[in-house]
Write a structure and sequence with these properties.
- It is a single chain.
- This protein has 396 residues and is of the alpha+beta class.
- It is built from eight helices and 22 strands.
- It has a domain of 82 residues: Immunoglobulin-like.
- The structure holds calcium ion (CA).
Protein backbone atom coordinates (compact mmCIF):
# COMPACT_ATOMS: atom_id res chain seq x y z
CA UNK A 1 0.00 0.00 0.00
CA UNK A 2 1.18 3.49 -0.81
CA UNK A 3 0.14 6.80 0.71
CA UNK A 4 -0.32 10.08 -1.19
CA UNK A 5 -0.46 13.53 0.39
CA UNK A 6 -3.11 16.08 -0.64
CA UNK A 7 -1.29 19.36 -1.24
CA UNK A 8 -2.89 22.78 -1.73
CA UNK A 9 -0.43 25.27 -3.24
CA UNK A 10 -2.84 27.74 -4.80
CA UNK A 11 -3.81 29.71 -1.72
CA UNK A 12 -3.32 30.23 2.00
CA UNK A 13 -5.97 31.32 4.45
CA UNK A 14 -6.06 32.36 8.10
CA UNK A 15 -3.11 34.77 8.32
CA UNK A 16 -1.88 35.94 11.70
CA UNK A 17 -1.58 39.69 11.13
CA UNK A 18 -3.02 42.40 8.90
CA UNK A 19 -0.64 44.29 6.62
CA UNK A 20 -1.19 47.72 5.06
CA UNK A 21 -0.79 47.37 1.30
CA UNK A 22 -1.82 49.20 -1.86
CA UNK A 23 -4.25 47.25 -4.04
CA UNK A 24 -6.54 47.74 -7.03
CA UNK A 25 -9.99 46.22 -7.35
CA UNK A 26 -10.42 43.62 -10.10
CA UNK A 27 -13.73 42.53 -11.61
CA UNK A 28 -14.78 39.04 -10.41
CA UNK A 29 -16.10 37.96 -13.79
CA UNK A 30 -13.47 39.59 -15.98
CA UNK A 31 -10.16 39.46 -14.22
CA UNK A 32 -8.55 41.63 -16.88
CA UNK A 33 -10.77 44.56 -15.89
CA UNK A 34 -9.32 46.89 -13.25
CA UNK A 35 -12.19 48.59 -11.43
CA UNK A 36 -10.42 51.11 -9.21
CA UNK A 37 -7.26 53.08 -8.63
CA UNK A 38 -4.74 51.72 -6.16
CA UNK A 39 -5.71 52.38 -2.58
CA UNK A 40 -4.65 51.05 0.79
CA UNK A 41 -6.39 47.96 2.22
CA UNK A 42 -5.93 45.75 5.27
CA UNK A 43 -4.74 42.39 3.96
CA UNK A 44 -4.49 39.26 6.15
CA UNK A 45 -1.27 38.28 4.45
CA UNK A 46 1.27 38.07 7.29
CA UNK A 47 1.67 34.42 8.39
CA UNK A 48 4.03 34.13 11.38
CA UNK A 49 2.99 30.72 12.83
CA UNK A 50 3.65 31.83 16.43
CA UNK A 51 3.14 28.35 17.86
CA UNK A 52 5.54 26.77 15.36
CA UNK A 53 8.15 29.23 16.65
CA UNK A 54 10.52 28.49 13.78
CA UNK A 55 10.81 24.80 14.62
CA UNK A 56 10.34 23.36 11.11
CA UNK A 57 10.78 26.51 9.05
CA UNK A 58 11.63 30.07 9.94
CA UNK A 59 9.90 31.35 6.81
CA UNK A 60 7.22 33.99 7.32
CA UNK A 61 4.79 34.94 4.60
CA UNK A 62 4.21 38.62 3.76
CA UNK A 63 1.94 40.42 1.30
CA UNK A 64 4.60 40.16 -1.41
CA UNK A 65 4.21 36.34 -1.39
CA UNK A 66 0.70 36.77 -2.82
CA UNK A 67 -0.93 38.17 -5.97
CA UNK A 68 -4.42 38.85 -4.86
CA UNK A 69 -6.82 38.65 -1.89
CA UNK A 70 -10.58 38.92 -1.48
CA UNK A 71 -10.79 40.16 2.10
CA UNK A 72 -10.25 43.75 3.19
CA UNK A 73 -10.00 43.97 6.98
CA UNK A 74 -10.69 47.74 6.81
CA UNK A 75 -14.20 47.22 5.47
CA UNK A 76 -14.77 43.60 6.55
CA UNK A 77 -15.56 43.07 2.91
CA UNK A 78 -15.24 39.70 1.13
CA UNK A 79 -17.02 40.39 -2.16
CA UNK A 80 -14.26 42.24 -3.95
CA UNK A 81 -10.99 41.12 -5.52
CA UNK A 82 -7.93 43.13 -4.58
CA UNK A 83 -4.81 42.68 -6.68
CA UNK A 84 -1.83 43.70 -4.60
CA UNK A 85 0.69 46.42 -5.44
CA UNK A 86 2.87 45.72 -8.52
CA UNK A 87 1.46 42.20 -8.90
CA UNK A 88 0.25 40.50 -12.07
CA UNK A 89 -1.85 37.41 -12.56
CA UNK A 90 -0.05 34.33 -13.84
CA UNK A 91 -0.77 33.72 -17.52
CA UNK A 92 -0.19 29.93 -17.58
CA UNK A 93 -3.57 29.25 -15.95
CA UNK A 94 -7.17 28.59 -16.97
CA UNK A 95 -8.65 31.40 -19.10
CA UNK A 96 -12.07 31.24 -17.44
CA UNK A 97 -13.15 34.71 -16.22
CA UNK A 98 -10.43 36.15 -18.45
CA UNK A 99 -7.82 34.75 -16.07
CA UNK A 100 -8.43 32.13 -13.37
CA UNK A 101 -5.22 32.51 -11.36
CA UNK A 102 -7.30 33.64 -8.39
CA UNK A 103 -9.62 31.06 -6.82
CA UNK A 104 -9.94 31.99 -3.13
CA UNK A 105 -8.24 33.31 0.04
CA UNK A 106 -4.68 34.70 -0.44
CA UNK A 107 -3.43 33.58 -3.86
CA UNK A 108 0.21 32.53 -3.90
CA UNK A 109 2.59 34.34 -6.26
CA UNK A 110 4.44 31.33 -7.62
CA UNK A 111 6.70 33.55 -9.72
CA UNK A 112 8.36 34.81 -6.53
CA UNK A 113 11.66 32.99 -5.87
CA UNK A 114 11.17 33.03 -2.08
CA UNK A 115 7.74 31.44 -2.42
CA UNK A 116 9.08 28.79 -4.78
CA UNK A 117 12.00 28.13 -2.47
CA UNK A 118 9.78 27.67 0.58
CA UNK A 119 7.41 25.32 -1.29
CA UNK A 120 10.37 23.23 -2.41
CA UNK A 121 11.76 23.15 1.12
CA UNK A 122 8.33 22.20 2.46
CA UNK A 123 7.99 19.32 -0.04
CA UNK A 124 11.36 17.89 0.99
CA UNK A 125 10.49 18.31 4.68
CA UNK A 126 7.12 16.58 4.22
CA UNK A 127 8.64 13.59 2.41
CA UNK A 128 11.48 13.22 4.93
CA UNK A 129 9.07 13.47 7.85
CA UNK A 130 6.25 11.24 6.60
CA UNK A 131 7.69 8.94 3.93
CA UNK A 132 4.72 9.58 1.63
CA UNK A 133 4.85 8.04 -1.85
CA UNK A 134 3.11 10.64 -4.00
CA UNK A 135 0.72 13.55 -4.24
CA UNK A 136 -2.84 14.56 -4.99
CA UNK A 137 -2.40 18.15 -6.09
CA UNK A 138 -5.30 20.53 -5.60
CA UNK A 139 -6.65 23.19 -7.97
CA UNK A 140 -3.92 22.96 -10.62
CA UNK A 141 -5.92 25.00 -13.15
CA UNK A 142 -5.26 28.06 -10.96
CA UNK A 143 -1.47 27.57 -10.72
CA UNK A 144 1.07 28.24 -13.47
CA UNK A 145 1.34 25.01 -15.43
CA UNK A 146 5.16 24.99 -15.46
CA UNK A 147 5.41 25.18 -11.65
CA UNK A 148 4.89 21.50 -10.84
CA UNK A 149 7.31 20.37 -13.53
CA UNK A 150 10.10 22.05 -11.56
CA UNK A 151 8.74 21.14 -8.13
CA UNK A 152 8.22 17.43 -8.83
CA UNK A 153 11.41 17.11 -10.88
CA UNK A 154 13.50 18.38 -7.96
CA UNK A 155 11.81 16.03 -5.49
CA UNK A 156 12.08 13.04 -7.82
CA UNK A 157 15.77 13.74 -8.44
CA UNK A 158 16.62 14.38 -4.80
CA UNK A 159 14.84 11.29 -3.43
CA UNK A 160 15.23 9.13 -6.56
CA UNK A 161 11.59 8.05 -6.33
CA UNK A 162 8.66 8.25 -8.77
CA UNK A 163 6.21 10.11 -6.48
CA UNK A 164 3.12 9.30 -8.52
CA UNK A 165 1.09 12.49 -8.71
CA UNK A 166 -2.43 13.34 -9.81
CA UNK A 167 -3.76 16.84 -10.31
CA UNK A 168 -7.25 18.15 -9.80
CA UNK A 169 -8.01 20.18 -12.95
CA UNK A 170 -11.75 20.67 -12.69
CA UNK A 171 -13.02 20.97 -16.25
CA UNK A 172 -15.53 18.93 -18.23
CA UNK A 173 -13.42 19.40 -21.34
CA UNK A 174 -10.91 16.78 -22.41
CA UNK A 175 -9.11 19.20 -24.75
CA UNK A 176 -8.22 21.49 -21.85
CA UNK A 177 -7.03 18.54 -19.74
CA UNK A 178 -4.81 17.37 -22.59
CA UNK A 179 -3.47 20.91 -22.99
CA UNK A 180 -2.56 20.98 -19.29
CA UNK A 181 -0.78 17.63 -19.56
CA UNK A 182 1.26 19.05 -22.46
CA UNK A 183 1.93 22.38 -20.75
CA UNK A 184 3.04 20.70 -17.52
CA UNK A 185 5.37 18.35 -19.38
CA UNK A 186 3.37 15.24 -18.45
CA UNK A 187 4.67 15.31 -14.86
CA UNK A 188 1.34 14.27 -13.38
CA UNK A 189 -1.85 12.41 -14.17
CA UNK A 190 -5.21 14.20 -13.97
CA UNK A 191 -8.53 13.17 -12.54
CA UNK A 192 -10.88 12.24 -15.41
CA UNK A 193 -13.48 14.93 -14.76
CA UNK A 194 -15.24 14.45 -18.14
CA UNK A 195 -15.79 10.76 -17.31
CA UNK A 196 -17.37 11.72 -13.97
CA UNK A 197 -19.81 14.02 -15.82
CA UNK A 198 -20.59 11.24 -18.31
CA UNK A 199 -21.49 9.01 -15.33
CA UNK A 200 -23.56 11.84 -13.80
CA UNK A 201 -25.48 12.43 -17.04
CA UNK A 202 -25.94 8.70 -17.69
CA UNK A 203 -27.32 8.22 -14.19
CA UNK A 204 -29.86 11.01 -14.77
CA UNK A 205 -30.88 9.88 -18.26
CA UNK A 206 -31.57 6.25 -17.40
CA UNK A 207 -32.22 4.08 -20.41
CA UNK A 208 -32.12 7.09 -22.74
CA UNK A 209 -28.34 7.35 -22.39
CA UNK A 210 -26.45 5.58 -25.16
CA UNK A 211 -23.92 3.48 -23.24
CA UNK A 212 -21.82 3.00 -26.38
CA UNK A 213 -20.80 6.67 -25.90
CA UNK A 214 -19.88 6.48 -22.20
CA UNK A 215 -16.15 7.01 -22.90
CA UNK A 216 -16.63 9.70 -25.56
CA UNK A 217 -14.51 12.83 -24.92
CA UNK A 218 -13.00 11.41 -21.73
CA UNK A 219 -9.39 11.53 -20.59
CA UNK A 220 -9.23 7.77 -20.07
CA UNK A 221 -9.86 7.32 -23.80
CA UNK A 222 -7.61 10.17 -24.97
CA UNK A 223 -4.69 9.61 -22.54
CA UNK A 224 -5.22 6.31 -20.71
CA UNK A 225 -1.84 6.42 -18.99
CA UNK A 226 -2.53 9.88 -17.54
CA UNK A 227 -6.12 9.35 -16.37
CA UNK A 228 -7.18 8.76 -12.78
CA UNK A 229 -10.76 7.58 -13.06
CA UNK A 230 -13.34 8.14 -10.33
CA UNK A 231 -17.11 8.02 -9.90
CA UNK A 232 -17.77 10.73 -7.29
CA UNK A 233 -15.67 12.68 -4.80
CA UNK A 234 -15.98 15.01 -1.82
CA UNK A 235 -16.77 17.97 -4.11
CA UNK A 236 -19.38 16.27 -6.31
CA UNK A 237 -21.56 14.77 -3.58
CA UNK A 238 -24.83 16.58 -2.72
CA UNK A 239 -24.54 20.15 -1.30
CA UNK A 240 -20.82 20.39 -2.07
CA UNK A 241 -19.34 23.10 -4.30
CA UNK A 242 -19.30 21.04 -7.51
CA UNK A 243 -22.32 18.88 -6.75
CA UNK A 244 -23.08 16.56 -9.63
CA UNK A 245 -23.68 13.22 -7.93
CA UNK A 246 -23.91 9.96 -9.82
CA UNK A 247 -27.28 8.46 -8.91
CA UNK A 248 -27.21 5.45 -6.69
CA UNK A 249 -28.53 2.88 -9.18
CA UNK A 250 -25.75 3.73 -11.64
CA UNK A 251 -22.84 3.52 -9.19
CA UNK A 252 -22.24 -0.23 -9.67
CA UNK A 253 -22.15 0.32 -13.44
CA UNK A 254 -19.76 3.27 -13.04
CA UNK A 255 -17.47 1.27 -10.75
CA UNK A 256 -17.46 -1.58 -13.27
CA UNK A 257 -16.41 0.93 -15.97
CA UNK A 258 -13.52 2.18 -13.79
CA UNK A 259 -12.38 -0.89 -11.81
CA UNK A 260 -12.78 -3.68 -14.35
CA UNK A 261 -11.21 -2.18 -17.45
CA UNK A 262 -7.64 -2.00 -18.57
CA UNK A 263 -7.34 1.78 -18.95
CA UNK A 264 -6.94 4.34 -16.21
CA UNK A 265 -5.87 4.33 -12.56
CA UNK A 266 -9.17 3.98 -10.69
CA UNK A 267 -10.01 5.67 -7.41
CA UNK A 268 -12.72 4.53 -4.96
CA UNK A 269 -14.58 7.26 -3.06
CA UNK A 270 -14.83 6.75 0.70
CA UNK A 271 -18.54 7.64 0.84
CA UNK A 272 -19.36 5.22 -1.98
CA UNK A 273 -17.61 2.46 -0.10
CA UNK A 274 -18.71 3.14 3.48
CA UNK A 275 -21.86 5.17 2.82
CA UNK A 276 -22.41 8.60 4.41
CA UNK A 277 -25.00 10.56 6.37
CA UNK A 278 -24.53 14.28 6.86
CA UNK A 279 -26.29 17.55 7.61
CA UNK A 280 -25.67 20.76 5.65
CA UNK A 281 -25.19 23.64 8.09
CA UNK A 282 -24.71 27.21 6.88
CA UNK A 283 -25.08 30.53 8.72
CA UNK A 284 -28.48 32.27 8.80
CA UNK A 285 -30.63 29.35 7.72
CA UNK A 286 -31.88 26.14 9.24
CA UNK A 287 -29.75 23.03 8.74
CA UNK A 288 -30.71 20.90 5.74
CA UNK A 289 -30.69 17.14 5.39
CA UNK A 290 -29.82 14.60 6.45
CA UNK A 291 -28.27 13.65 3.12
CA UNK A 292 -27.57 9.99 2.76
CA UNK A 293 -25.54 7.92 0.37
CA UNK A 294 -25.59 4.16 0.36
CA UNK A 295 -22.62 1.89 0.95
CA UNK A 296 -21.61 -0.09 -2.13
CA UNK A 297 -18.83 -1.96 -0.35
CA UNK A 298 -20.30 -5.38 -1.04
CA UNK A 299 -20.07 -4.96 -4.82
CA UNK A 300 -16.94 -2.79 -4.80
CA UNK A 301 -15.12 -5.50 -2.83
CA UNK A 302 -16.18 -8.03 -5.45
CA UNK A 303 -14.98 -5.75 -8.26
CA UNK A 304 -11.66 -5.13 -6.49
CA UNK A 305 -11.12 -8.84 -6.04
CA UNK A 306 -12.05 -9.53 -9.69
CA UNK A 307 -9.65 -6.77 -10.78
CA UNK A 308 -6.83 -8.33 -8.78
CA UNK A 309 -7.49 -11.92 -9.87
CA UNK A 310 -8.87 -11.50 -13.43
CA UNK A 311 -8.00 -7.99 -14.64
CA UNK A 312 -5.24 -9.07 -17.03
CA UNK A 313 -4.48 -9.57 -20.69
CA UNK A 314 -6.16 -8.14 -23.75
CA UNK A 315 -9.49 -6.38 -23.57
CA UNK A 316 -12.14 -6.90 -26.25
CA UNK A 317 -15.09 -4.52 -26.31
CA UNK A 318 -18.69 -5.24 -27.28
CA UNK A 319 -20.07 -1.69 -27.24
CA UNK A 320 -22.68 -2.53 -29.87
CA UNK A 321 -26.04 -1.82 -28.25
CA UNK A 322 -27.65 1.38 -26.92
CA UNK A 323 -28.46 -0.12 -23.49
CA UNK A 324 -26.31 -3.23 -23.09
CA UNK A 325 -22.53 -3.16 -23.43
CA UNK A 326 -19.82 -5.57 -22.39
CA UNK A 327 -16.17 -6.45 -22.58
CA UNK A 328 -13.83 -9.38 -22.07
CA UNK A 329 -10.44 -9.66 -20.38
CA UNK A 330 -8.56 -12.63 -21.79
CA UNK A 331 -6.11 -13.23 -18.92
CA UNK A 332 -2.34 -13.70 -18.91
CA UNK A 333 0.15 -16.50 -18.24
CA UNK A 334 0.32 -15.63 -14.54
CA UNK A 335 -3.45 -14.99 -14.29
CA UNK A 336 -4.99 -17.44 -16.76
CA UNK A 337 -8.66 -16.90 -15.86
CA UNK A 338 -10.90 -15.03 -18.32
CA UNK A 339 -13.51 -12.43 -17.32
CA UNK A 340 -16.59 -11.16 -19.13
CA UNK A 341 -18.44 -8.05 -17.91
CA UNK A 342 -21.93 -7.18 -19.08
CA UNK A 343 -24.12 -4.28 -17.95
CA UNK A 344 -27.39 -2.64 -18.88
CA UNK A 345 -29.10 0.69 -18.26
CA UNK A 346 -32.33 -0.68 -19.77
CA UNK A 347 -33.93 -4.13 -19.81
CA UNK A 348 -32.41 -7.47 -18.91
CA UNK A 349 -29.71 -8.09 -21.50
CA UNK A 350 -27.57 -10.76 -23.05
CA UNK A 351 -24.66 -10.78 -25.42
CA UNK A 352 -22.55 -13.38 -27.18
CA UNK A 353 -18.91 -12.67 -26.35
CA UNK A 354 -15.78 -14.65 -27.16
CA UNK A 355 -13.68 -15.39 -24.07
CA UNK A 356 -11.37 -17.77 -25.99
CA UNK A 357 -12.09 -20.60 -23.54
CA UNK A 358 -13.91 -23.47 -25.30
CA UNK A 359 -16.36 -25.52 -23.22
CA UNK A 360 -15.55 -23.55 -20.06
CA UNK A 361 -17.80 -22.68 -17.13
CA UNK A 362 -18.34 -19.09 -15.97
CA UNK A 363 -20.19 -17.88 -12.85
CA UNK A 364 -21.62 -14.45 -12.06
CA UNK A 365 -19.37 -13.08 -9.31
CA UNK A 366 -22.02 -10.43 -8.41
CA UNK A 367 -24.54 -13.22 -7.59
CA UNK A 368 -27.26 -11.42 -9.58
CA UNK A 369 -27.62 -14.48 -11.82
CA UNK A 370 -27.25 -17.94 -10.36
CA UNK A 371 -27.17 -20.05 -13.54
CA UNK A 372 -23.71 -20.71 -14.99
CA UNK A 373 -22.67 -19.93 -18.55
CA UNK A 374 -20.94 -22.70 -20.51
CA UNK A 375 -19.02 -21.52 -23.57
CA UNK A 376 -19.29 -23.35 -26.89
CA UNK A 377 -16.54 -25.19 -28.74
CA UNK A 378 -15.27 -21.89 -30.26
CA UNK A 379 -15.03 -20.14 -26.89
CA UNK A 380 -18.16 -17.99 -27.25
CA UNK A 381 -20.61 -17.65 -24.39
CA UNK A 382 -24.10 -16.13 -24.11
CA UNK A 383 -23.55 -13.85 -21.09
CA UNK A 384 -26.46 -12.16 -19.31
CA UNK A 385 -27.20 -9.28 -16.95
CA UNK A 386 -30.29 -7.90 -15.20
CA UNK A 387 -31.86 -4.60 -16.25
CA UNK A 388 -30.01 -1.62 -14.70
CA UNK A 389 -27.32 -3.88 -13.27
CA UNK A 390 -23.91 -5.34 -14.00
CA UNK A 391 -22.79 -8.96 -13.97
CA UNK A 392 -19.14 -10.01 -13.76
CA UNK A 393 -18.59 -13.47 -15.24
CA UNK A 394 -15.46 -15.25 -14.03
CA UNK A 395 -14.03 -18.44 -15.40
CA UNK A 396 -14.22 -21.25 -12.85
CA1 LIG B 1 -3.35 30.98 -8.31
Amino acid sequence: MQCYADVVFNHKDGGDNVERVLAEEIDWHNRNWVRSDKHEIGAYTHFTFPNRAGKYSTFQWFWWCFDCVSYNADTDNTNKLYRLRDKHFETEVSHEHGNYDYLMACDLDSSNPFVRGELQYWGEWLISLSGINGFRIDAVKHIRSSFFGDWLHQLRTKFNQEFFSVGEYWEDNVGLLEKYIRDSGGVMSLFDVPLHYQFHRASKAGRNFDLRAIFEDTLVRAQPFKAVTFVDNHDTQPVQSLQSPVEDWFKPLAYAFTLLRKEGDPCVFYADYYGATYIDEKPNRPPQGPFQSASHSWLIDKFLWARQAYGYGDQHDYFDHHNTVGWVRTGSNEHPGAMAVLLSNGDDGYKWMNVYRPNASFYDHTEHITEKVITNAEGWGKFRCKGGKVSVWLQE
